[in-house]
Amino acid sequence: MGPGDLKQTICGLTPSDERILVGFDTSEDASVYQINETQALVQTLDFITPVVDDPYIYGQIAAANALSDVFAMGADVKTAMNIVGFDKKNLSKEALGLILKGGNEKIKECGGVLLGGHTIESPEMYYGLSVTGMIHPKDIVRNNTPLIGHVLVLTKPLGMGILSTAIKRDLLPLNFIKECAKIMASLNYLPSKIMRKYDVSSCTDITGFGLLGHVLECTNELVSFNISCNNVPILSEAIDLCANDVIPGGTKRNIKYVEDQILYMNNLPEHCKALLCDAQTSGGLLIAMKESDAKEYIKELEELSFGYASIIGQVIPRAIKPIIIC
Questions:
Q1: Helix axes 160-168, 174-185, angle to 10 degrees
Q2: How far from chain centre, in Å, is Cα 76?
Q3: What is the DSSP letter of 147?
Q4: pLDDT level of residue 271 (50, 70, 90 thresholds)
Q5: Which of 78, 94, 159, 270 is most solvent-facing, going by the fewest CB within 10 Å?
Q6: What is the bridge-based pairing of β-strands 126-135 and 40-48?
């Protein structure tokens, strides 16, 4: 579901409880519910349809995608539960076992515990997790509190939505599919833990709404994000595919949703705009932090980010539009 439709659907559901530290009224990555003075629950849920043919790797990617929202809040995963729609007509029970095994490996990788879940028969396969994390109430990292002067760090490259579409159309060689899968299956766990050492003012993860859709959620009435298109890490294969109109429907919805909120300082080709709005699966973290810290953070992240982590822009005083692309 696109961001516009989603907001319209849930606009009347805002809860009222003093223990809710983060609800869904501000488009945060996860909700936060205070237990006591030192503990708060961080909760999220996500699932996806297959993006690769290998069931084990699909399970890893789907789990990494779901777990990421907890990491974006600066929290640690404690427990998870499986959410499964099983397409028994096209998949064997053995394949389902591999999907769940792949997901469980990712849960364990970040110190979490799988507690069970729920499975139904479905005409289309989907898998994901309901995740619970823990955080100190004073340590919550919000998505919409960036400070003017902080730079923006993106920890994974863009293009995964376009590349996932290409995989489904058999347009990519096997070796590159494996490379894409490795990036999508990598957790934002360690990048999240490392960022907590630094002066961070906001964080979100880049998933279905694309870079610019999530950027829009991070801005507020006091700030805009100035993004340098040339500094945004993008997988080169996605550029060629995008230029040939291999663009998923979710990406096209994202383009339409943010088009009135962006000032383009240069004449960008349409395919570049699409890449900045590309609907990601298990994308990276977008972090606002001090520039000196950002440089050190990127050095620490070199291997974890496959060399893609980059400073892509800056938080500036509110401009004519929330997002400026130069």
A1: 140
A2: 16
A3: P
A4: confident
A5: 94
A6: antiparallel
Closest to 250 measured CA to CA, from 224, 278, 230? 278
Name the token pair of 92.
């064997």
Q: Give the C-alpha separation, 212 to 215, whole Å.
A: 5
Quote the tokens at residue 199: 């002066």
Q: Which tokens in the block code for residue 142?
A: 């919000």
Contact between 14 and 24 under an 8 Å Cβ cutoff? The reply is yes
**Cα dihedral: 241, 242, 248, 251 (round 10):** 150
Question: How far apart (Å, rounded) are the C-alpha atoms in residues 229 and 41?
Answer: 37
Question: Rounded distance, CA 105 to CA 185, Å?
Answer: 11
Listed in sequence order, the residues at least 6 apart from 301 whose beta carbon sits closer than 8 Å to its beta carbon are 155, 191, 194, 309
Tell me whether residue 268 is exposed, middle or buried, using C-beta atoms within 10 angstroms of its C-beta: 0 to 12, 13 to 18, 19 or more: middle
Nearest CA among 266, 202, 176 for reference residue 27: 202
Single-letter amino acid, residue 43: Q
**Residues contacting 312, CB < 8 A, separation 6+:** 152, 153, 154, 227, 228, 231, 232, 233
The 8 Å CB, 24+ separation contacts for 195-199 are: 195/74, 195/285, 195/287, 195/289, 195/297, 196/74, 196/139, 198/289, 198/290, 198/293, 198/294, 198/296, 198/297, 199/289, 199/290, 199/293
Q: Residue 287: enclosing H or E segment and its boundaries?
A: strand 285-289
DSSP of 71-124: HHTT-EEEEEEEEEEE-TTTS-HHHHHHHHHHHHHHHHHTT-EEEEEEEEE-SS
What is the C-alpha to C-alpha distance for residues 69 and 166, in angstroms, rounded to an integer? 26
Confidence of residue 4 (pLDDT cuts 50, 70, 90): low
